[in-house]
Amino acid sequence: MDFSLPPEVAELKARTEAFVRDALIPLERDPRQTPHGPTDELRRELNALARGAGLLSPHMPREWGGLGLSHGAKAAVFEAAGYGLLGPLALNIAAPDEGNMHLLEQVADERQKRRWLAPLASAEVRSCFAMTEPHPGAGADPALLATRYRKAAGGYVINGTKWLITGADGAAFTIIMARDEESPEGQPRATMFLADMDRPGIVIERTLDTIDQSFPGGHCVVAFQDLFVPEEDVLGREGEGFRYAQVRLAPARLTHCMRWLGAARRAHDVATDYARRRHAFGKPLIDHEGVGFQLADNELDIHTCRLVTAHAAWVLDQGQKGRHESSVAKVICSEAIWRVVDRSMQVMGGLGTTGDAVVERIFREVRPFRIYDGPSEVHRWSIARKLAREGAR
Ligand SMILES: Cc1cc2nc3c(=O)[nH]c(=O)nc-3n(C[C@H](O)[C@H](O)[C@H](O)COP(=O)(O)OP(=O)(O)OC[C@H]3O[C@@H](n4cnc5c(N)ncnc54)[C@H](O)[C@@H]3O)c2cc1C
After folding, report:
1. What is the pLDDT of residue 186?
2. Which residue's CA is the nearest one to ligand 1's atom 40?
3. Which of 196, 220, 239 is the last residue of a domain?
4. Are 289 and 280 in contact (CB under 8 A)?
């Protein structure tokens, strides 16, 4: 096993770190950050900065203007970007766009790529991914998919309501997951559709108030009311929606691990710095075992996250699907990252809970990671089912 980074990846990682430190962290108090994420004006400025630094869309193949990074290389660069609250957005590697780019690149036809992937890869536009639904529809259990489509002359008509759709407000287009209304209850046959957000029949009903605030456009409730989608805008093949969801999810989960690991490392660095400088009971906080051990545990969690992420990235780089490995990494990282940020807050005392320290923001940003892209419990449940199947064999 060779754990060293290729020189060009190490160079790119160092350049990303410097860009985050010098260009992005000073902008973290820019007032164009709303409770529903940075404004699009700010996003465009950040993308221009990244473009100027040669760091825009590094994950995309060169034909789409990127640097063609492997999954392993992404692990290093995305973590470096995640160190800044604005890093992933600036580099155009934030969710949901990054996952959508990957999906389009893998599944879309040439016309669809020119129409939807090209402007997304160059950060001209944003997109969203519409899968989750309010009760009683799809959430942790995708088989509950309730948004339905039926065949019509020249295309399909879609009806249903989605929610928690990140970035819907201001997105140029959406990828919609819907079920064939003829398919049996509990065993939906699903298809993905592409649709521009300004088409008649797409209504953003409201933007939800959520704990986090780093995604432009926030998280929205979106209704599809007799939305007509022409045949040529089916993404991939009809009936393959669940398979494509996996094509998107396995790498998308892992890139969340990479970016949020960078954020956790930032919280840890800030807390460590505080514990070295702040004194209590006659010595620096870090010299109290109760504090020093918390920071040591942070180091252990961060190292574990980096290793499991690198391993799952390696599996993907071997051309394997990596579903199991990315699922394992997602549970380990989302929980370890949470612990790191929680300990960092504790070490910083009252200051850690205030907006004066970045730890409070990071704390709010990382919490939902244990829920989206599959709650921890669902991943554990599916790992346990795999064990049961193997036992049966
Ligand atoms: C910030 C954020 C952004 C999001 N962005 C998007 C987006 O852009 N597009 C999109 O489509 N969706 C998005 N989601 C939705 C996300 O994918 C869902 O929240 C997630 O899949 C869980 O579904 P649910 O919320 O309906 O939870 P539910 O299905 O109601 O489940 C609730 C809880 O039940 C438990 N549970 C469920 N099943 C099991 C089981 N088998 N065993 C044990 N426990 C179980 C888990 O603890 C789970 O958290 C986002 C969510 C958040 C929080």
Report:
1. 82
2. 378
3. 239
4. no
Give me the CATH number covering residue 163.
2.40.110.10
312 shares a domain with 350: yes
**Does 246 share its domain with 388?**
yes
254 and 375 together in one domain:
yes
Quick one: which of 357, 368, 363 has its CA closest to 29?
357
Q: Do both 212 and 284 map to the same domain?
A: no
Which atom of ligand 1 is least distant from the CA of 95? 8
Instruction: Write out the H or E segment, with its range, that includes residue 152.
Output: strand 148-152
Mutate which of 338, 377, 380, 385 for ligand 1? The one with the most ligand atoms within 8 Å of its CB, which is 377
Residue-number span of the structural domain to which 348 is assigned? 242-392
Between the CA of 188 and the centroid of ligand 1 the distance, in Å, is: 19
Residues ≥6 apart with Cβ < 8 Å to 290: none
Residues of the chain where predicted confidence (pLDDT) is lower than 50: none
CB 181 within 8 A of CB 144: no
The per-residue pLDDT for 393 is: 77
**Predicted confidence (pLDDT) per residue in 377-387, tens digit:** 999 999 999 99
Q: What pLDDT shows up at residue 139? A: 97
User: Dihedral angle at the C-alpha atoms of 294, 298, 299, 305, nearest 10 degrees?
Assistant: 160
> Virtual CA dihedral for 210, 211, 217, 219, nearest 10 degrees?
-40
pLDDT at residue number 223: 98
The total domain count for the chain is 3
Residue 1's pLDDT is 84
Q: Is residue 119 part of a domain?
A: no
180 & 132 share domain? yes
Residue range 105-140, pLDDT digits in tens: 999 999 999 999 999 999 999 999 999 999 999 999
**For the domain that residue 310 is a member of, what is the CATH number?**
1.20.140.10
Which residues lie with the beta carbon below 6 Å from any ligand 1 atom?
A: 96, 128-132, 139-141, 164-166, 210, 212, 219, 368, 371-372, 375, 377-378, 381
Q: Give the closest residue (by CA) to ligand 1 atom 19.
A: 372
